[in-house]
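[Discussion] Sanity-checking designs against the backbone

I'm trying to build intuition for which residues belong where. Below is a structure token string of 342 positions. I'd appreciate it if someone posts a full sequence so I can compare it with mine line by line.
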């Protein structure tokens, strides 16, 4: 197992290299650049001044000296392959450069937004598995019953509702929109958060997390629940389960001790993929609930052509994805000891 993990870690290097090469060249060849964004801002400022002084034509012109200075400032006076090589050398010391928009280190920008997505990601993971696995097991046991049909109907309805749309409805109905005023509209805490004691801060955070968490997790319950149910139903139909019944074992022992462990294999093998999902965040949900997270950062960075932030996000996302795959393999071995990666 250790040899396998070592090989996977070594293979991460060329994989990361390939991902960063493709993304770097795509974003640099796409129309628009930080230079053009800056020029538009200068021309707009010049036009505004020129309008006030009735000489907008002359004020809106950007000289070649300014253009060359901007290119040198942002490093665009060099060919794209040279810029990638410089970025790669800086990456060796975990230096992603400076954000063109925020004018501070990319690492600081990402770390300032990361806790928001991380908190909701961890909560979503825990709730999704704590609810979906027992519900899937119970649906398998009660297969064909009224509970099975009714819960399936509710799960499909939940799956069909987009998270951001549900967020708007929850705000309208439960956050003072037009009906009840039970929950806060957005944000992570109240205005007087610093004046609270520890317990009040925990309650206040939880109070603000209720509606966004519902929107984050609403779509994941259906997939996990039906995957759990179908996996367990498949295990129940196998010969070893019939043999256990023939020996007189109770249904509880058969389901929970013998069949459940094998049925969990498809569930745990996908657990690593949640790392990437957590980091990506959800743009629309963050927008609806006024959460300044990774999803909103990625979207705004693309619009403003903030190349350094985009590359930083892509690199960290790729790392999490690859680590998540390794975690999935480890979970696979823990659930099924017959598997031995060599």
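Best answer:
Here's mine. Compare freely.
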């Amino acid at each position: 197992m250790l040899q396998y993990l070592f090989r996977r870690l070594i293979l991460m290097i060329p994989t990361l290299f390939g991902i960063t090469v493709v993304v770097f060249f795509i974003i640099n060849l796409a129309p628009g650049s930080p230079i053009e964004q800056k020029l538009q801002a200068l021309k707009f400022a010049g036009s505004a001044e020129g309008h006030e002084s009735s000489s907008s034509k002359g004020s809106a012109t950007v000289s070649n000296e300014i253009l060359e200075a901007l290119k040198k400032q942002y490093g665009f006076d060099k060919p794209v392959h040279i810029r990638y090589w410089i970025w790669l050398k800086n990456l060796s010391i975990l230096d992603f450069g400076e954000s063109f928009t925020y004018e501070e280190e990319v690492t600081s920008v990402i770390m300032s937004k990361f806790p928001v997505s991380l908190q909701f990601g961890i909560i979503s993971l825990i709730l999704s598995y704590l609810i979906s696995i027992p519900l899937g097991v119970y649906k398998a046991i009660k297969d064909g019953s009224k509970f099975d049909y009714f819960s399936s109907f509710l799960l499909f309805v939940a799956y069909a509702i987009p998270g951001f749309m549900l967020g708007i409805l929850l705000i309208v109905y439960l956050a003072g929109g037009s009906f009840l005023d039970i929950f806060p509209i957005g944000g992570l805490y109240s205005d007087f958060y610093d004046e609270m004691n520890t317990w009040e801060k925990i309650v206040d955070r939880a109070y603000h997390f209720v509606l966004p968490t519902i929107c984050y997790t609403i779509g994941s319950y259906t997939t996990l629940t039906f995957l759990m149910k179908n996996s367990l139903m498949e295990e129940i139909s196998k010969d070893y389960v019939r043999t256990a019944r023939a020996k007189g074992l109770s249904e509880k022992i058969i389901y929970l001790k013998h069949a459940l462990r094998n049925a969990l294999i498809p569930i745990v093998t996908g657990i690593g993929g949640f790392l990437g999902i957590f980091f990506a965040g959800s743009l629309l949900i963050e927008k609806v609930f006024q959460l300044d997270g990774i999803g909103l950062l990625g979207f705004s960075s693309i619009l403003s052509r903030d190349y350094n932030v985009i590359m930083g996000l892509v690199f960290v996302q790729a790392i999490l994805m690859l680590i998540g795959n390794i975690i999935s393999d480890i979970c696979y071995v823990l659930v099924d000891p017959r598997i031995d990666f060599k």
